[in-house]
Design brief:
It is built from 15 helices and 13 strands. The protein has three domains: about 10-130, Gyrase A, domain 2 (2-Layer Sandwich); about 145-220 and about 395-440, Up-down Bundle (Four Helix Bundle (Hemerythrin (Met), subunit A)); about 225-365, P-loop containing nucleotide triphosphate hydrolases (Rossmann fold, 3-Layer(aba) Sandwich), CATH 3.40.50. About 45% of the residues lie in helices and about 20% in strands. It has helices at about 35-40, 100-110, 120-125, 135-145, 150-160, 160-185, 195-225, 240-245, 290-305, 320-330, 350-355, 370-380, 395-420, 425-440, 445-455, and strands at about 10-15, 20-30, 40-45, 55-65, 70-80, 90-95, 115, 225-235, 265-270, 275-280, 310-315, 335-340, 360. α7 (about 195-225) packs antiparallel against α13 (about 395-420) and α13 runs antiparallel to α14 (about 425-440). A seven-stranded mixed beta sheet has the order 3-4-5-6-2-1-7. A six-stranded mixed beta sheet has the order 9-10-8-11-12-13, with helices on both faces. The relative contact order is 0.13. Guanosine-5'-triphosphate binds near residues 236 and 239.
């Protein structure tokens, strides 16, 4: 669907708060005529007009539509350029009922504003130089963050930390390109230049930084979107007890009978700040029971599509064929062996576990002992432990794609340099890398790229 944005300055309006009953609802108005339009619906208690007062001031009063008074309201006044969008802005806060906020928006539109498109306020902030493109994207991320880690990453993006990391790579490459230009322009002159060795070092450093950013993207995605996690193991290993421990409530049925869980039981929990989408599955064993059989098949299905597997073992008993069958089925998926029932005397063959699993946690799902070790191990496996979200990480597919293309260009430049091609050929690739990075930060992004970023936003942001 094509979304057309309004020309800069045209006064746009939208409900900025969630479309649900809440204590406060806000209608945001931005554009040259923001105050004049707001004054048509808002009457302050003391008769003051928003058009007459300075920025960063608030007035108390009432808002009116065609059918009369809508609600009492507070009007917050911002003056260009000292506002979120960089334009004149008025925010009208009323009671947060859906009907009230919608009536207020309707009145504001009737008074002359046009309905804002998705992310149009943030888009204007970007166009007015209030923030870079990655910072603008982080506005969406902050709103959508589910876990503390994701929120931290989004905030770092918003504070321009990511932008700075990208700028550092860009500067390295720009300097290299400038030297290459000097070479091309004055081949005979003895001007001070970088040697091919220095150029190689610059390219290697740019490559290293881009690779690091791309690696961290994957860990960041886990923090943001959560991880499909399957709890698997033989019957009675304590899978459902572990599920309940992680969920903090009686999510799954627990009994002493093997084969209790049949269907997949799901819940999302936060472990060490990372959202895990847990699936508690039927105990894996060879069975003739037709219902249990389907459960076991479903468990295997989940194991195949999982991003993380918690393989649960009952350490108070010997290993059996089911334990070994499960271990063999795990393949390449990141996996943690959870050696459960640590409160009972240990009978399990730990040599076998150690030989098959790189990540092992010993815990008691009934007492909760060892839960911190599990959180720690999950962070290790997902490599989120190595990533400090406050240092700024790539967090959208668009950013990842741009970083990847920049890396391709840098690698091309390296190949051109290694194979003794002309500096022209190297320059082309280095400049292409710089241009992709400028697109990434939005400094030189086409309108299509910019608009596609904001299309993902919700209206009112
Ligand atoms: N002592 C002790 N008992 C545990 C522990 N974890 C689970 N149990 C017991 O083991 C039995 C089976 O637990 P469940 O959580 O139902 O096991 P499950 O793996 O979900 O079993 P199925 O659903 O049948 O596959 C129950 O009696 C639990 O109380 C533990 O850490 N220590
Ligand atoms: Mg169970």
């Amino acid at each position: 669907m094509e979304i057309r944005y309004h020309p800069p300055g045209e006064t746009i309006a939208a409900i900025a708060t969630a479309q649900a009953p809440g204590a406060v609802g806000v209608v945001r108005i931005s554009g040259t005529d923001a105050q004049r339009i707001a004054d048509r619906v808002f009457r302050s208690a003391h008769g003051k007009k928003l058009a007459e007062i300075s920025g960063y001031r608030a007035l108390y009063g009432h808002v009116f539509g065609a059918e009369g008074e809508i609600d009492e309201a507070v009007a917050l006044n911002f003056r260009a350029p000292a506002s979120f969008t960089g334009e004149n802005v008025v925010e009208l806060s009323c009671h947060g009922g859906i009907y009230v906020t919608r009536s207020l928006l309707k009145a504001v539109l009737e008074a002359g504003a046009v309905p804002a498109g998705p992310g149009e306020f943030t888009r204007r902030a970007f166009l007015n130089g209030k923030m870079g493109l990655t910072e603008a994207e982080s506005v969406m991320e902050i709103v959508g963050a589910e876990g503390a880690q994701a929120a931290r990453a989004a905030l770092a993006g918003h504070d321009g930390v990511l932008e700075k990391r990208i700028a550092a790579v860009k500067e390295t490459l720009t300097a290299a390109a400038a030297h290459l230009d000097a070479w091309a322009d004055y081949p005979e002159d003895d001007i001070p230049q970088v040697t091919p060795e220095e150029l190689k070092t610059s390219l290697a450093s740019a490559k290293h930084s881009l690779e690091e950013l791309l690696r961290e993207f994957e860990a960041g995605r886990a923090m943001r979107e959560g991880v499909e996690t399957v709890i698997a193991g033989r019957p009675n290993a304590g899978k459902s007890t572990l599920m309940n421990l992680l969920a903090g409530c009686e999510r799954s049925i627990v009994t002493q009978y093997a084969g209790t869980t049949r269907d997949v039981v799901e819940d999302t929990v936060l472990l060490g700040g990372i959202p895990l989408r847990l699936a508690d599955t039927a105990g894996i064993r060879a069975t003739e029971d037709p219902v249990e059989k389907i459960g076991v098949e479903r468990a295997y299905g989940r194991i195949r599509s999982a991003q993380l597997i918690l393989a649960v073992f009952d350490s108070s008993g010997e290993l059996d064929d089911s334990d070994r069958a499960l271990t063999e089925a795990l393949a390449e998926t990141p996996c943690i062996a959870v050696v459960n029932k640590s409160d009972l005397p240990q009978k399990i063959d730990m040599e076998y576990i150690r030989s098959k699993y790189r990540h092992i946690v010993i815990l008691s799902a009934t007492s909760g002992a060892g839960l911190n070790d599990l959180a720690h191990e999950v962070a290790e496996v997902l490599e989120t432990a190595k990533v400090n979200p406050s240092e700024g990480i790539l967090f959208t597919e668009r950013q990842r794609d741009a970083a990847r293309r920049a890396l391709d260009c840098v690698e091309e430049a390296q190949t051109a340099l290694e194979s003794g091609m002309t500096f022209d050929a190297v320059t082309v690739s280095v400049e292409a890398a710089v241009s992709v990075l400028l697109e990434l930060t939005g400094e030189r992004a086409t309108e299509t790229v910019v608009d596609s970023v904001f299309h993902h936003f919700c209206v009112g942001k």
